[in-house]
Design brief:
The strands form 4 sheets. A 3-stranded mixed beta sheet has the order 6-5-7. Strands 1-2 form a two-stranded antiparallel ribbon. It has a two-stranded parallel ribbon with strand order 3-9. It is of the alpha/beta class and about 200 residues long. It is built from 5 helices and 9 strands; from the N terminus they run H-H-H-E-E-E-E-E-E-H-E-H-E-E. The longest helix is centred in the last third of the chain and has 15 residues, at about 155-170. It is globular.
Length: about 200
């Protein structure tokens, strides 16, 4: 993604910290693809990113940032967490992602064949147990299957890792929170870890 942005598109402002972090997170993953048809750069970036743990975007400084999430976190990852003070919270609301977005089985098609225009390989993954299925209103692991296709991956090991990441991301409903904050929190960016000093208003 950085090569395309810098060498092909002439982007000069790159957030180096996010790039270094993203490179480390993806160091064991391999991506291979060709672009044979004309495509808008924004659309290409979005398609590639769906097969990664990265969310590339232009931050509030005008830099291309490669914010990425880790497959797992430890307490050390929160050492430099940005603090939101309770008295700064103007208002907030909680919600959950839709139950329909909780998937019980992932089928991952990869190794795209540009001659046949079909995928030559398939990886699949589930970690759903009977209790989880029943809690979400399902009875079989194939009750809510997600079929995901990626023309950007050919490596088997990478496909097996990515399919697990996708499943973990959709295994349960997510609690989402909308928080209205004053302008001095404008420095917060996608991918930042945050915490509250206290939560009297919650």
């Amino acid at each position: 993604l950085k090569h395309i942005a810098v060498d092909e598109l002439g982007v000069q402002d790159i957030n180096q910290d996010s790039y270094v972090d993203a490179k480390a997170i993806h160091s064991h993953l391999k991506f291979d693809f060709s672009v044979k048809d004309e495509i808008k750069s924004k659309e290409l970036f979005e398609k590639i990113a769906k097969s990664t743990l990265c969310y590339p975007y232009f931050n509030n400084q005008g830099e291309l940032s490669f914010s990425s999430y880790k497959p797992s976190y430890t307490l050390n990852d929160f050492a430099n967490t940005k603090v939101i003070k309770d008295f700064d919270v103007i208002n907030f609301s909680f919600n959950k992602t839709k139950l329909e977005q909780v998937y019980t089985f992932i089928t991952f098609k990869y190794n795209y064949n540009y001659s046949t225009k079909k995928y030559d390989s398939i990886a699949s993954y589930t970690d759903s147990n009977i209790d989880q299925l029943a809690y979400n209103g399902y009875s079989n692991i194939k009750d809510n299957e997600l079929v995901f296709e990626s023309p950007f991956i050919k490596d088997k090991s990478t496909a097996e890792d990515i399919v697990k990441y996708i499943f973990k991301d959709y295994q349960f409903q997510h609690l989402t929170c909308k928080i209205k904050l004053p302008l001095h929190y404008i420095h917060l960016d996608v991918g930042d870890t945050i915490k509250f000093d206290k939560c009297n208003k919650c």
